[in-house]
Specification:
Largest sheet: 6 strands, parallel
Number of strands: 6
Structural class: alpha/beta
Number of helices: 8
Distance between the termini: 29 Å
CATH class: Alpha Beta
CATH superfamily: Aldolase class I
Helix content: 25-40%
Radius of gyration: 17 Å
CATH topology: TIM Barrel
CATH architecture: Alpha-Beta Barrel
Oligomer: single chain
Shape: globular
Strand order of the largest sheet: 1-2-3-4-5-6
Strand content: 5-15%
């Protein structure tokens, strides 16, 4: 866990075993606008797992800050990941979890950053992360709201993935709060996001955050690079042991 107040920042790790408006489906499109099969080099899916042949590693803001994130903290984390040697050791993803966005979409229905937390916007923070030789990760939710009651991507699937691509996002953690109201199965929802990402033309890693509810069984490998294998992990040893025991007990839960 990292603390800024003490002047020390210890980088946390995410691993592969953890960590048009109104569109409700996103068939991959050819240049002429017709549907096509997903290109595994661009999409989240694909059995060759071209975007993440090894588990993505880096830092996620949630356990350290919950929703209390802002531009200054993220810049400091990016600096620390470089200065500490974490980047050069392969911990290259810096992921902003829940709490980065404004409470409402803009007048065009697009996601926007909370102007008080990120006054220069998400493109600027992504550019800073990239300038450090790191990869830019972001959080969203497949329900109508995020876990913090901020705008979710339900019924905005393609618009939101296109927005993320325009910001230079490299990694998306897609959560599942309130998703039971979607009227769709997890496998259907995540396949939609896979195809929406493909349509943007930008290679983006997709991470399934479905509370450890069996993504390995319902088709996670066909829709994303990685998925959760357990409930939330907390900064005390019993929680760490429980998650480790869950991951060690059934090897089929791991991506292959």
């Amino acid at each position: 866990m990292e603390t800024l107040g003490s002047g020390r920042i210890v980088v946390l790790v995410i691993t592969g075993i953890v960590v048009a408006i109104g569109a409700t489906s996103c068939s991959p499109l050819r240049k002429d606008g017709s549907a096509s099969k997903a290109d595994p080099a661009l999409s989240a899916g694909g059995s060759d797992n071209a975007l993440a042949p090894t588990p993505p590693m880096g830092w996620n803001s949630w356990n350290a800050f919950k929703a209390d994130i802002d531009e200054q903290k993220i810049r400091q984390i990016a600096d620390a990941m470089v200065d500490s040697g974490m980047r050069d050791a392969g911990y290259t993803y810096l992921v902003l979890d829940d709490g980065w966005m404004a409470a409402e979409r803009d007048s065009n229905g697009n996601l926007v950053a909370d102007p008080n937390k990120f006054p220069n916007g998400m493109k600027a923070i992504g550019d800073y992360i990239h300038s450090k030789g790191l990869k830019f990760g972001i959080y969203e939710d497949r329900g109508h709201s995020t876990c913090q009651q901020l705008p979710g991507s339900f019924k905005h699937e393609q618009a939101d993935m296109s927005t993320f691509a325009s910001w230079g996002v490299d990694y998306i953690k897609m959560d599942s709060c309130f998703a039971e109201r979607n009227g769709r199965l997890s496998t259907e929802d995540y396949a939609i996001y896979r195809d929406c990402i493909t349509n943007t033309g930008r290679p983006i890693v997709l991470s399934i955050s479905d509370f450890g509810n069996g993504a390995w069984a319902w088709g996670g490998k066909e829709t994303a690079q990685l998925w959760r294998t357990s409930n939330d992990i907390y900064p005390w040893m019993d929680s760490v042991y429980n998650c480790a025991d869950t991951s060690a007990g059934d090897r089929s839960i791991h991506a292959a």
